[in-house]
Design brief:
Blueprint: E1 29-38, H1 39-45, H2 48-74, E2 99-100, H3 108-119, E3 133-138, H4 143-151, E4 173-176, E5 185-189, E6 194-198, E7 207-213, E8 217-230, E9 236-239
Parallel strand pairs: 2-9, 3-4
Antiparallel strand pairs: 1-8, 3-5, 5-9, 6-8, 7-8
Length: 242
């Protein structure tokens, strides 16, 4: 909300209408695989085959959760047509003011514009939110440039001498993930962005159980319940890059 009103000498307070905030709808989805241990695998590998199966399925569940988050961020896979409750994509230059579709390279100037754009976001009543950019999210191809821009004490602009400070020094944390396609880069604030959810009671872990067993093979089924939602667009910014 905005500022508080000055209390009048009579003690009267100004009435403020509370508006219901729009919350995004979401649900948990189930993801799974079936694993088969043959009789020969069990005989020749003893118990290691089952141990490896558990380990591998755990890695697959972790990879699934991570990948789904980045699918939403990149409008890929099941999230290619994802829209928020207002009917617009998460990143929308016109309606959300958080997307540079023409794309510019990572630089001191483009990062400064991203930080300013995020801080200028307002709530439904036009009140400034002052969101501070905290994370720079990039693909592996952009990692070195990102680290140069954010960890160099001197200015990274070619026209500046070594005595000029870098105003972006340590201003954001860098997140690098190979799930991202090279080119586009993202700036995220430390508030409502993408929420991840797990099925209660699972400890955020996949569930594996024996499905069937015979003399020749043993079948296990594994299920992982996970969901994501873009809670709010205001602390998320995308530049299409070059």
């Amino acid at each position: 909300s905005g500022r508080l009103s000055k209390v009048l000498e009579s003690g009267e307070l100004t009435e403020e209408q509370i508006s219901n905030e729009v919350y995004e709808e979401w649900k948990i989805e189930s993801y799974g695989k079936e694993f088969v241990l043959t009789r020969q695998m069990i005989i020749n590998d003893d118990l290691n085959a089952f141990t490896n199966l558990l380990s591998e399925f755990g890695k697959m569940a972790k990879r699934t959760a991570n990948g789904i988050v980045y699918d939403l961020l990149q409008s890929a896979g099941d999230y290619a047509s994802y829209t928020m409750k207002d009917g617009y994509a998460v990143f929308d230059a016109t309606n959300h003011s958080n997307y540079v579709s023409t794309g510019t390279a990572l630089s001191q100037t483009s990062l400064a514009l991203a930080k300013t754009s995020m801080m200028r976001q307002v709530d439904g009543k036009g009140n400034a939110l002052n969101i501070v950019a905290k994370y720079l999210v990039v693909a592996p191809e952009q990692e070195i440039l990102a680290r140069v821009l954010l960890t160099s004490q001197g200015s990274t602009e070619t026209s500046k001498n070594s005595g000029v400070i870098n105003p972006l020094y340590n201003s954001m944390e860098i997140i690098v993930d190979a799930e991202l396609s090279s080119g586009a880069w993202y700036v995220m604030g430390d508030r409502r962005t993408i929420k991840a959810g797990y099925l209660a009671g699972t400890g955020r872990r996949p569930i594996i159980q024996l499905d069937s067993s015979s003399l020749t093979k043993t079948v296990f089924q594994g299920v992982f319940d996970f969901g994501v939602v873009a809670e709010d667009f205001k602390a998320m910014y995308k530049n299409a890059g070059v």
